[in-house]
Amino acid sequence: MAALSLKKNLLTLVLVVILVGALFPSNVKGQTVADIVTDDFFNGILNQASGDCPGKSFYTRAAFLSALSSYNQFGSGSADESKREIAAFFANVAHETGSLCYIEEINGASQDFCDESNTQYPCNPDKKYYGRGPLQLTWNYNYGAAGNSIGFDGLNSPETVASDPVISFKTALWFWMTNVHQVLNQGFGATIRAINGAIECNGGNSGAVQSRIQYYNQYCNQLGVAPGDNLSC
């Protein structure tokens, strides 16, 4: 009887360990995203921007972590996979925003990012859907879908992405988890293709591609992880 009881207790313990591992994968690998994206790491990016950059008083680590609470699959792989995803995310963010300098796309208001063929997310003729936020969310269909997912009126109030830092980071994480996260195993180059491949990849803008790669290598080095293969597109 004692042996049977011991077996039952051991089985219960194994089941508890498995359940905890499933619910809290970050605890298994020992580090959460917040542990990796330290103040020093985040501010190291922000400090590359000049003092008069609007992003310096807008983008904060606290806003990123607050937004992150809605996207718990971000950085949820192994220790190295998590670090590579964080490096890839912030490399693309740094490129898109000039090291967190810009909140809105330069001269964005003069450009037309309304896809009138998209009837699911019709444009408000009084609004502009140019790049805003850490990954420079663009186009009416992205604003509409992001708004529905996050809980703000992306079509009628796209400017919210440039006025609320938590929603701003949420749009970047929404875009990442919707379009980029699933191609991480193909290498960093696949993240570039997912974000701006039609314009930059296959020789479209090799300077922009190299800029993203340079940031990625820098952040991988800071986080102590190998960048992996297939960095370009």
Features of this protein?
single chain; mainly alpha; disordered N terminus; about 230 residues
- What spatial form do the alpha-carbon principal axes imply? globular
Strand content: under 5%
Provide the helix percentage: 40-55%
Structural class: mainly alpha
The first-to-last residue Cα distance is 64 Å
Number of beta strands = 0
Order of helices and strands: HHHHHHHHHH
Which oligomeric state applies?
A: single chain
Radius of gyration: 20 Å
Give the low-pLDDT segments: 1-29
Number of helical segments with 4 or more residues = 10
Nearest-integer average pLDDT: 89
The biggest sheet amounts to: none
Q: Can you tell me about this structure?
A:
With 233 residues, the chain is mainly alpha-helical. It is built from 10 helices and no strands. It has helices at residues 2-23, 25-29, 33-36, 39-46, 61-68, 79-97, 140-150, 165-180, 188-200, 206-223. It starts with a helix and ends in a 10-residue tail after the last helix.
